Amino acid sequence: MKFTPALIAVAAGLTFSASAAVAETWDMPMAYAATNYHSEHGVMFADKVKEYTDGKLEITVHAGGSLFGGADIKRAIQTGQAPIGERIMSAHANEEPLLNWDNQPFLATTYEDSAKLWEAAKDTVNETLADMNLLALYTCPWPGQGFYFKNEVASGADVKGMKLRSYNAATATVIESLGGTPVQIEAAELTQALATGVADGFISSGSTGYDRKVWEHLSHYYKVNAWLPRNYVMVNKGMWESLDSDVQAGLQKAADETGASCTAKSEELANWYFEQLEENGMTVTDAGPEFLAELKEIGATMQADWLSQVGDKGQAILDAYQK
Ligand code: PCA
Fold first, then answer.
1. Which residue's alpha carbon is at the smallest distance from atom 9 of ligand 1?
2. Short-list 143, 142, 125, 144, CA closest to 134
């Protein structure tokens, strides 16, 4: 028999309030590799939550899509199967196009601009998430997005007919616009997809190529820095509201500190990842002028399409960002 605080209290004949005596434990599914800085920050967050809530709330992190696969994490949290979890926010843009705010090519390509854009988008994004029964506790950017290939690519013509792995609607659109075929695959399954020829390449940061050791299958990385998409730690809104206000405050303090630390880490690692790709034999270069010009054109179309989908709310984000 396990002697939980509750049993010990009963055995001692004490009267107590269950919520005060027994720590609540939350499972936190996360989508990406356990060794990735996003997941390491999830663990840091859990430690901070325990400390700042005086042990009233304990979070157990399950990284790498091990508890729920990346594609299932949001639904698990919305439905209360898990109270809290993490995933790339823009993967949910097929349901709520507004959540494509951070996947507009060439809109915000530096960490400074990414922070500015989040500041401009935050309130609207939070309203959108609330409608989905979710609340964002913190967000953290991936480094800039570029292209992984098996061979040299000078322009879109070289991409035609390729099967490229996508991770959300925006990446699928870029791939289709280049004449390729998008294949939606979780980061956790990427190595397998490349090994079996399901995908010939993909769009991502240096981070995911490093995590998945893609140099075993691919040879070229083109730095485009097209956008810096964000992961977010989301909590079921109802479960958040059921927490005592001091526990909420502890969670929020842990989240604020972790989000800031994770963002700084992302920036610190961005070039290190490129060095690791090179050390493992990949050619890492800037995208050539022709390819870049084509991507900019695709980006302009995507932004116009996004604005026509989301209307004034999207325009207000852009206006606040560009002010
Ligand atoms: N890595 C994640 C999303 C963006 C990134 O840099 C992935 O490729 O799934």
1. 187
2. 125
Place of tokens 């800085």: 37
* Domain 146-227+279-322 indexed as CATH 3.40.190.170: yes
- Whose CA is closest to 60, among 26, 33, 36, 11? 26
Q: Fold match between 23-142+229-271 and 146-227+279-322?
A: yes
Give residue 197 CA to ligand 1 midpoint distance, Å.
Answer: 19
> For residue 262, which of 140, 145, 143, 142 has the smallest C-alpha distance?
140
Ligand 1 atom closest to the Cα of residue 202 is 8
The C-alpha atoms of residue 145 and residue 163 are separated, in whole angstroms, by 18
Q: Is the CB of residue 37 below 6 angstroms from any atom belonging to ligand 1?
A: no
Ligand 1 pocket check for 210: Cβ under 6 Å: no
How much of the chain, in percent, has pLDDT values that exceed 90? 93
pLDDT in tens, 206-234: 999 999 999 999 999 999 999 999 999 99
The pLDDT tens digits of the residues spanning 262-280 come to 999 999 999 999 999 999 9
Residue pLDDT, tens place only, 91-115: 999 999 999 999 999 999 999 999 9
CATH match for 23-142+229-271 among 3.40.50.10170, 3.40.50.2300, 3.40.50.1000, 3.40.190.170? 3.40.190.170
Report which residue type is found at 199.
A
- Domain edges within the chain: 23-142+229-271, 146-227+279-322
Nearest to 132 by CA among 74, 183, 86: 74
Nearest to residue 46, comparing CAs of 27, 30, 60, 66? Answer: 60
For residue 266 and ligand 1, the question of a CB distance below 6 A is answered with no
Q: Is 214 in the pocket of ligand 1 (CB under 6 A)?
A: no
Does 246 have pLDDT greater than 50?
A: yes
